[in-house]
Amino acid sequence: MKNGEILEVTVKEIKDNTVIGLVDEQNVYVRAKDISLLEPEKKYFGFLYLNRHGEWCVDTTIPKASLKSFGWGKVETVDHSSGVFVSIGLADKDILVSLDDLPDNSRDWPQVDDELIVRLERDNKDRLWGKLATDEDLISGGFISFDHKFKQNEMVSGHVYHLGKTGVFILLKEGRFAYLHHTEMEENVHLGQEITGRIIGFGAHDRINISLLKNAYARIDDDAAMILAAIKFTPDKKLLLSDSSTPKEIKDKFGISKSSFKRAVGHLLKQNLITSENGYLKIKS
Questions:
Q1: Which residues face 195 on adjacent strands?
Q2: How confident is the model at residue 78 (pLDDT cuts 50, 70, 90)?
Q3: Nearest-angstrom CA–CA distance, 85 and 66
Q4: What is the model's pLDDT at position 93?
Q5: What residues does each domain of the chain span?
Q6: What fold characterizes domain 71-132?
Q7: How is domain 218-283 classified at the architecture level of CATH?
Q8: What pTM does this model have?
């Protein structure tokens, strides 16, 4: 018998909540979502594993994460000396994703309750390890779908499955790849984290670009919003005011100081919402 095998078990005895089975004439514990459905002397297919107590068990609910396929695993424990332990659905066994397969900086590690997409790997000591999915694994594993039609500024959610040099890669709940550049996040994002962001573009290879920042209009302050509204409601979408305007002209128009005006205009320029040309402020087309 080997850890992680999918094999046939014969139920030998059912007593209270304990089910004993036989695999190659060796006793094993049999797990099932509903043991009342199990019958003595009947054969069932299941997933063979050593539980945390070193006992052989066969679970008749075969986990999606196996030696041949990828599945979701929920982080149960973080151990900075070894890695993170994820649950793949086994009642008394979590799978270790080694620190060798995790980011160098532990602040980028998954946290408890985060989710990873893993496949199992068995080493020469018959131990099971969790291996993280790549783009190719997600494609071949059937995680990708093109059913949903995304729109600009649509809010989407997903989990981070890979950290890159300039940003993070996400698998959206709708089954599409997404990318989050580091300039589009306000704080660190880690592996396995569930995030919700706004679509800001559509990149190469059918990958969606998202942002965790509020859109430009939501990020401007009250003074900037007042100036922007004033420009928008002029007939030709331009306002005869600029840095060269006098404090009195600015005060008469907006009731704010020139320094506040310059700060607000600078914010609007930085957000690419307006332009400043020939003494006029204009809505950027």
A1: 158
A2: very high
A3: 15
A4: 96
A5: 6-59, 71-132, 143-211, 218-283
A6: OB fold (Dihydrolipoamide Acetyltransferase, E2P) (2.40.50)
A7: Orthogonal Bundle (1.10)
A8: 0.75
265 alpha-carbon distance from chain centroid:
36
- β-pair type (238-239, 194-202): unpaired
Architecture of domain 143-211: Beta Barrel (2.40)
Q: Which of 186, 72, 81, 195 is nearest to 132 (CA)?
A: 72
CB 7 within 8 A of CB 60: no
Pairing, β 177-181 against β 167-172: antiparallel
4 close to 51: Cβ distance less than 8 angstroms: no
Q: Matching CATH topology for 71-132 and 143-211?
A: yes
Taking the C-alpha atoms of residue 101 and residue 14, their distance in angstroms, rounded to an integer, is 41
pLDDT beyond 90 at 267: no
